Amino acid sequence: NVLFECVPVFINICFVVLFFFIVFAIMGVQFFAGRFWTCNDTSVHRVDQCWGCFEDGDGSNPHANCPDGYSKRVWRNPKMNFDNVMNALLTLYEVAGQEMWLDVMYSAMDTRPGYARKAHGADDFPFGAQPVQERNSNAAWYFVFFILIGVFVVLNLFVGGVVDKFNELKNANGGKNPLQTEEQAQYTESMTLMARMRPFKVPLPPKRPTKAKLAAGSSPEVALYNLRSKCYAVVMWDTSGKGMGTTFDMIISLMVMLNIIVMGLYYWKRLPNGAAYVAAGEAMGEYQNTPYYQGLEVLNTIFTFIFLAEMSLKITAWGIKQYLQDMWNQLDFVLVISSVLGFIVEVSIKNASFPLNPAVFRILRVARLTRALKSIRMVGRVKGIANLVDTLVIAIPAMTN
Question: What is the pLDDT of residue 123?
């Protein structure tokens, strides 16, 4: 019913979208009409040279009366082109869907708008030129502006229309979500109240030994209590004096952000011309193992042990049971353990004193993937992201419908 109510709004928006598409289609015809044609033999320069056979080592056109290893030259036009307004509209529709639209943009960038040759004796004929890679690179701006205006702005009018109509139906429904049943609305209301009134549980300090044991002073229980008390003071450190551990968590959150930045600094070192390596081989690993890469590896290892120290401090201060009562601590526990295990596997493989199967290096790459999971730690530490997670949980019934 909501969808049918939105149909009149959709029709009005369709006219606006069609107007923008027609404007860009006319511009595309002016810029690129007849210029997407190309020869399958890249060695030719003009259409009148695109005939006969050429050597390609494939011979994929056996019906072209060409010898083995040769193919017939063909002057063809891509299916997506701007030869007329209808073709341009279809091409822009594909670009708007952002599926394989880069191929269309690259074809436009390879056109030769300034090319002219003598045809039929004396006439200038600016068509029939073989495209050259990025000869007309400024053509990319046409597609950039179309994506910005025709996709990001205009097509989002549909979303705005749906939201506007949805709010009208919600007001007409007494403020209730028209996409939910009564039971689902009660669930959403309950989850919203839980998210708003969720209590913040302060971890309890370590249990104090008896006075007799404290008087003895040197018992293992007293030593453990003193250690746990010091760890508790560290993890609950708060510059405001409230003892909520806010300052400590902010420092750890900063470490997580710095770790994410470090993980984003990796890059693939380009191979020299003519070089060939086995993709997962040891030689490739040695070539990529630059001092820059080794420095990032050291930083990653330092962060791994910082997070391991954080988890150890909290478990020592609170106890494993109290630590795992919080959902985000459970996530931290899994991520830290996976990172440490990945580090151990990586070190074990690198220091192996026996020949290794190349497949082992694939295991090494999987172990390194555990580092990327550490970025998930920010979900529970940034209030805005945590609120987004709560919103997704509340919206589950409506999304299911």
Answer: 46
